[in-house]
Write a structure and sequence with these properties.
The chain is mainly alpha-helical and 233 residues long. It folds into 2 domains: 63 residues, Orthogonal Bundle (Arc Repressor Mutant, subunit A); 152 residues, GntR ligand-binding domain-like (Four Helix Bundle (Hemerythrin (Met), subunit A), Up-down Bundle), CATH 1.20.120. It is 70% helix and 3% strand. The chain has 11 helices and 2 strands; from the N terminus they run αααββαααααααα. Strands 1-2 form a two-stranded antiparallel ribbon. A hairpin with a 3-residue loop joins strand 1 and strand 2. Helix 3 packs parallel to helix 7, helix 5 runs antiparallel to helix 11 and helix 6 runs antiparallel to helix 7. The longest helix has 26 residues. It is globular, with a radius of gyration of 18 Å. The two termini are 30 Å apart. The model has no long low-confidence stretch (mean pLDDT 83). This is FadR/GntR family transcriptional regulator. InterPro entries: GntR_C, TF_FadR/GntR_C, Tscrpt_reg_HTH_GntR, WH-like_DNA-bd_sf, WH_DNA-bd_sf. Keywords: DNA-binding, Transcription, Transcription regulation.
Length: 233
């Protein structure tokens, strides 16, 4: 059984961070990566597409895939704390970090950054494929974090993101997703990007806060429904 796309993405980030490339920055071939990670070609290519859209790798026909900008080394620390936290704690952390990142992004994002955000939001769309919705959603939020231009906050975001992609939490988020919520999330993503493009930090902060609060409420409802007595998680 192959890993899900988000897990494959995290594995490749760690390979990049650990220097798992040739001297010229070239990653192993797709065949080698598939064998090394024990994943299928489709899952691998989905992960590589996300990394390319984020600007972390680039590909040249006939030459291979090259590292563009290595991710932050937060995987080991995330592994240490993942067992001591839960999905709602992750959302609380996101609410502390991501609205500020969105506000900074409104001040600092380049035109190219905003174009990449539009591309990633379009990949999610109002009717996303359930197999890829989470991976593209994560890529959009990471792009906003990178474009904010604050390395300390980016490292904090990356740590939370490493914990967030745990497979059992992804299943909860999948259960919390519906046609209605995906349409709403699409509108909220567009509102966040619109505020960033308008260079309006306050509106960007508010739009991200509203988006994350809605995500948190939906997660709480899903977790409550999973408990026999309907109590809080």
């Amino acid at each position: 059984m192959t890993e899900n796309a988000n897990t494959v993405l995290a594995q490749i980030r760690r390979i990049i961070d650990a220097g798992g490339s040739d001297a010229d920055g070239r990653l192993p071939t797709e065949r080698t990566l598939c064998a090394q990670l024990g994943v299928g070609r489709r899952e691998l290519r989905c992960a590589l597409e996300v990394l390319e859209a984020e600007g972390l790798i680039w590909r040249r026909q006939g030459k291979g895939t090259f590292i563009g900008q290595p991710p932050d080394p937060t995987g080991v620390l995330a592994a240490d704390i993942v067992a001591a936290t839960d999905a709602l704690s992750v959302m609380e952390a996101r609410l502390c970090i991501e609205p500020t990142l969105a506000a900074l992004c409104a001040e600092r994002a380049s035109t190219d950054d905003i174009g990449r955000m539009r591309h990633l939001a379009a990949k999610i769309g109002p009717h996303p494929n359930s197999e890829t919705a989470e991976i593209w959603d994560g890529a959009l939020h990471r792009m906003i974090a990178r474009a904010a231009g604050n390395q300390i906050l980016l490292t904090a975001f990356s740590l939370v993101d490493e914990v967030r992609i745990r497979e059992d939490w992804q299943r909860v988020r999948d259960q919390a997703r519906s046609d209605e919520t995906t349409r709403l999330y699409h509108r909220q993503h567009e509102a966040i990007i619109d505020a960033i493009e308008a260079r309006d930090p306050d509106t960007a902060r508010q739009a991200m806060t509203e988006h994350l609060n809605r995500l948190m409420r939906n997660l709480e409802k899903t977790l409550d429904a999973k408990l026999p007595d309907g109590g809080a998680a």
